[in-house]
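Q: What changes when 2-acetamido-2-deoxy-beta-D-glucopyranose is included in the input?
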Amino acid sequence: MLKLALLAGLVGFCAAAAKLEEVFAWKEVSYAWPNDEARNEAVKNGEYIRENNLPLGLERWKDKLFVTVPRWKSGVASSLNYVPLSPANKTASLIPYPDWKANTIPKGEEKLEDNAIVSTFRVSADSCDRLWVIDTGVADILGGYKIIAPPAIVIFDLTTDKLIRRYNLKPEDQKADASFFANIIVDVIPGKCDEAYAYIPDLGGYGLVVYSYAENDSWRIKHNYFHFDPIQGDMTIGGVDIQWTDGIFGLALGPADETGDRTVYFHALASTTEFSVNSSVLKNKTIALDSLSYDLYKIEGNKGEKSQTSASVFDEKANVLLFTQLVKDGVACWNANKTLNAQNVGMVAEDHENLIFTNDIKVDSERNLWILSDKMPAFLYKKLNPEEINYRIYKVAVDEAIRGTPCEA
Ligand SMILES: *[C@@H]1O[C@H](CO)[C@@H](O)[C@H](O)[C@H]1NC(C)=O
Ligand SMILES: *[C@@H]1O[C@H](CO)[C@@H](O)[C@H](O)[C@H]1NC(C)=O
Ligand SMILES: *[C@@H]1O[C@H](CO)[C@@H](O)[C@H](O)[C@H]1NC(C)=O
Ligand SMILES: *[C@@H]1O[C@H](CO)[C@@H](O)[C@H](O)[C@H]1NC(C)=O
Ligand SMILES: *[C@@H]1O[C@H](CO)[C@@H](O)[C@H](O)[C@H]1NC(C)=O
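A: The predicted holo structure follows.
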């Protein structure tokens, strides 16, 4: 009888939690140097300090899985990278994208090339085979805070790996001594590639920068909903206590209507509330900057206690918003046809060992959910143990991920 009960318990547990496929698992990351001498040279001159390289953002495009390594500390060998998905190698070395030179900080009088990436947190691939990168332009954030270049949107053609455009954010897009750009979300209708918009949340300056590809122009929006909730900045993650003040952080795009407009879901990181706004409010500069637009922003609801979220992503087919759960060590979901409250939020994955700090998630064109976890609070404020697996990337089909949760239709 006891055996049966145990068995039933186990089966029940398996049914509730989706089975994640572990695709990558690193103790520390290495890079694909052209040869051993180049690697040894980088170690010798401090351009590669292994323990300072923390994978943070991810994106899948065809056979490439992009992995960003922001320059939190010195000794980051390359910030924008990818790993091949076939053949998969769980401990693969990162390959700089588009190449090594673009990921090398210029020395002395050297000029920064237009395709260069100083430091990036998150990137986005669009349906027009372009990779959109938000380059913060700052190296050694926690140490010397070296400003190498202004923050910029850098767009690559993924089919040729060539630069399409580099756009420096304007001084008026930024807030002095406060701005922090760690995410970029691209709004484009398939086939209408020239009408794309990028949304770049400013988590430190509590603003949202919108960039129009057609107009090659940007504007900065303010709203009280872009600020953090003072009650929700106190978190314990992987045994580390943190008090954060990160404002608007994750945005996710609902399906486009006949006019190409979407519901844009957004939240601050230090908050448990989710908000939304019609993209038509963001995309038209006149409307975006009109104070009368204030009331067009809506409160969707509250995700529940300890539901602070970094990145989020919307799956149109299931009509489900997926979002990281930083304090609960996992990923959660909400079906947008239902009221947003704690009862209607489901956990699609939870693991107090392997999903400590789910830093980024994406859904690829085949509707796979990708999850990157990296123990970032311990990396920032303590020290990671190089004998343990610290960085993981998982994959699961969206339909499988939400099965048995309140998010299933
Ligand atoms: C996987 O990648 C690591 C790091 O580059 C390398 O040392 C190892 O040989 C690779 N394994 C296989 C089977 O290719
Ligand atoms: C976009 O605008 C920037 C600055 O205003 C300018 O330097 C750049 O040449 C423009 N790019 C295109 C493709 O028009
Ligand atoms: C967005 O607003 C426009 C203009 O008011 C409206 O036509 C459209 O239906 C709205 N779309 C969504 C997705 O809410
Ligand atoms: C933006 O909205 C204003 C006010 O509704 C309108 O007059 C203008 O034509 C719109 N601009 C664009 C580029 O659609
Ligand atoms: C969800 O809502 C959308 C639009 O509001 C509707 O088309 C769809 O049928 C709904 N789906 C479910 C499963 O209720």
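Observations recorded in class: Residues 30, 89, 91-93 surround 2-acetamido-2-deoxy-beta-D-glucopyranose (ligand 1) (CB under 6 Å).
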